[in-house]
Amino acid sequence: xxxxxxxTGRRIVLWRHGQTSWNLERRFQGSTDIExxxxxxxQARRAARLLAALKPDVIVASDLKRAAATAAELSxxxxxxxxxxxxxxxxxxxxxxxxxxxxxxARYGEQYAAWKxxxxxxxxxxxxxxxxxxxxxxxxxxxxDKLPENGTLVVVSHGGTIRTTIGRLLGLESQHWxxxxxxxxxxxxxxxxxxxxxxxxxxxxxxxxEPVLGDDD
Length: 217
Prior knowledge:
InterPro entries: His_Pase_superF_clade-1, His_PPase_superfam, PG/BPGM_mutase_AS, PGM_Phosphatase
Structural class: alpha/beta
Number of helices: 7
Protein name: Histidine phosphatase family protein
Order of helices and strands: EHHEHEHHHEHEE
Organism: Streptomyces zaomyceticus
């Protein structure tokens, strides 16, 4: 999945959405459609000004409200229309969705521990991380393959989906994807095109000194 095509010197910016009320509550959102808080909108506007300076060629986003609203701030500055794709949604986590971190650990302790060990786990009866990568990474590559030389693609998505996509594009085995640290709200990672495929150039970048809240959502 790490093979590159199209123009050379391309760049993929994977941008996590702004803050939501469930992030603050450490509540697992998954595919639940939660809106940004006022602070989340402000984060998106601030980050968009920085990302606009990269002169992106294409913006693609998850169709969930928190990602779509984040992407809209960059669209307003660049004039680019956002392409929304449900394949970029966060991991569906079944019974875990809506629960706080403490509630998940209390009710699904063994399942949570196995996931943290890197084992393939259907959290809450939902998707495997590899299944998330199976749907999200091809969408990212499809848009990246159309970039011009030295072009930039901005992908607005969710913490878990971004991590699995990075892992897949770098060719890492899935049990090692957890070694990629989480993204703070409205921070981003950058993949650059190298001779052997995609390389991680920056991770959890941005000037927002915020803790990572609700990594997989």
